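User: I'm preparing a small set of examples for a lab meeting where we compare how different chains pack in three dimensions. I only have the primary sequence for this one, and I'd like the structure in token form so I can line it up with the others. Please keep the answer compact; I'll paste it straight into my notes.
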Amino acid sequence: MNYGETVQQSADTLYSDQLRRGFKRLRFIDFLEEEFRETYQSENGEKSRLTIVLALVICVVVTVISQAVGGEGESAMRALGLAVLVPMLLLTLVASYRATRIAYQFLLGVSALVIGLAGAVVDVKASLSGMSYYFAAQASWIFMIWLVMGFVFRPAAYLAWAVSIAYVAAALSAGLPTEEIIFEMSMLLTVNLLGGYSCYKIEYAARVNFLESKLLNQLAQRDGLTGLFNRRSFDEYVDRIWRQSRREGVTVAFLLVDIDYFKSFNDVYGHQAGDDALKDVAKVLAEAGHRPLDLVARYGGEEFALLLYGPSREYSRELPESLLKNVQGREIVHEGSENSKYLSISIGVAIIHSDAERSVTGAIQMADEALYQAKENGRNRVVMAESGTTNVETGRFRSLSVG
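Assistant: Understood. Below is the structure token output for the 403-residue chain.
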């Protein structure tokens, strides 16, 4: 396997592995699933918002008409519209701009369900009065739940079938003619099968597009020389994975790697040899970042960064030591080095436990100072810092040895 294939295999595992494995059940691994749903809601936000506005207008119009007609039944409809439906739809509309994805999806789902249940009651009452064509509104609403409101397949299925079952239950309870109920049940079954199939295909295509677009974006997020992710990509990824680690209570480790006496290497052997050395070191690091949520990046110049998600304490300690040996094992002669015959690296490691009250910036600074100390101690070594065992000073960190 050549260098490019090795880097490619190790760096884009999240999206490419998911694409290779497939997702017939319309589910990614948790980290990708959350990212996809945020993207999906954003792309369907305007469509679902328009549906809410339309439902709000219809609800107000129906309420006004019931006010004009009067009567005991219309009074109940006015109360339902003014006390429940209109406030709920307004709240959902506001949430579409301000609330989190989960809160907005919850309110949208509750609104879809309540409107469907209220519609079932209205449609059945209309059928008892000989206006069976009201049933078309119920079928249309179920179709909108499947295709227009921006739900992913499973929530859409729960809501659509709940509304359908509620309508059939209301029709049976009200004593509609058997022939009419059978016809409407067959229509509801048809609408749900067509809507469900269409919703599944749309979401499947959206998931494929999501993964492929991420893979294309990664091409622009790579360092041109080494093939690793660049600094900007690393920063963006770290922000996302840091939030996830805090939610899930997972330890993360940051490794900052610096090539020892690299300026001297360039002075002695030239910049082309320096570029080749960077590629060799990048290959060693890329082979280490093989776990799905780990990331390896070129951090700048001759410096690299690794993020390890949920590593064991032993792995966090053994991996950097193996990186030192593997880089030396490539036997890249370095006559400008003051401590080794061959090209070597220094590594600063910060292990951050989930209960540590530390920002992501502070965590990276902790690794940076550990790297600084590794250089001060003679280079070609690892210095480790662990949350809870490291003292911090303004402008400069003072790493204490841990084990």
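A couple of notes for your slides: Confidence is low (pLDDT under 50) at residues 1-11, 390-403. The chain has two domains: 3-216, 227-398.

User: Perfect, thanks.
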